[in-house]
Amino acid sequence: MLRTALLIGLGGFVGANLRYWLGGWIAQKIGVLFPIETMLINLSGSFLLGLFMTLALHYTWAPEWRQAIAIGFIGSFTTYSTYEYESLRLLQEGAWVKAGLNLFGSLVLGLIAVILGVALGRLLIGGTEP
Amino acid sequence: MRIEGQAKLLRIYIGETDRWHGQPLYMAILLKAREMGLAGGTVFRGIAGYGANSVIHTANILRLSEDLPVVIEIVDADEKIQAFLPVLDEMVKEGLILLREVEVIKYAGNSR
Predict the structure, then answer these.
(1) Strands B69-76 and B40-45: what pairing?
(2) Cβ-based neighbours of B48, under 8 Å, separated by 6 or more
(3) What is the spatial distance between Cα B44 and Cα A125, in angstroms, rounded to a whole number?
(4) CB-CB contact of B47 with B58 (8 Å)
(5) Which residues of chain B neighbour A37 with C-beta distances below 8 Å?
(6) How many CB atoms are located within 10 Å of the residue A85 CB?
(7) Strands B69-76 and B5-15, how do they pair?
């Protein structure tokens, strides 16, 4: 149990910090009128999770890797609560189009990102494995 | 204490996470102003802003909502404000301090 807590904690530590620093950098570089940094982080995390889980299940990687990377790292790298909070802020400002783009864009693009991650994983393992 | 007519408005722009001896800087400034007998002060929080280092702070983007702008306004007669400036200069390491002429129309409190 302590081992699991440490693995998840370690992955979470890296993921949360990567989101913090990368998110700040993206927001300052690309713009602050739309929460693009949260969307990009959630999309890339979704892609990575699709890819990682496809490989992990195919090669039966040790469950510790799934704990550290899928649950800890990617789990804390991506953020559902920030996505909802920033959507609410847009709604409160009356920025309906941006709020809609954020809410539905993230939802649909996120699913596409997972699918692409899974597809890349299947391509890497050479084939037909579900 | 009475002020009327010509007076000075001191406006101080800092960040909400700025600190002075373990307490929020805006609170420390306000308490110091009161201690030095200045007529009154008000602290405002901005919802977005940027300063000398060009980093945008906004409540809309969670990641950028950490250090929102705080503005402190203090009004008093010129000599009282001038006496406060050196103290302020020591306390504010990063920020902006402005001073302008104002005309006081009314300054009243309930006498206790």
Answers:
(1) antiparallel
(2) A32, B56, B57, B58, B59, B60, B68, B69
(3) 58
(4) yes
(5) 61, 63
(6) 16
(7) antiparallel
Amino acid at A9: G
Record: contact A86-B61, CB cut-off 8 A: yes
pLDDT value at position B112? 58
DSSP state of B16: T
Interface of B with A in 42-61 (CB under 8 A): 48, 55-56, 58-61
> Which residues face B70 on adjacent strands?
B14, B45
Task: Concatenate the DSSP letters of all residues of A63-86 into one string.
Answer: HHHIIIIIIIIIHHHS-HHHHHHH
Chain pair A-B, CB pairs under 8 angstroms: 35
Taking only the tens place, the pLDDT of each residue in B10-54 is 999 999 999 999 999 999 999 999 999 999 999 999 999 998 888
Measuring CA to CA, how many Å separate A50 from each of A16, A47, B13, B54?
19, 5, 46, 37
- The one-letter code for the residue type at B91 is M
The pLDDT assigned to B66 comes to 87
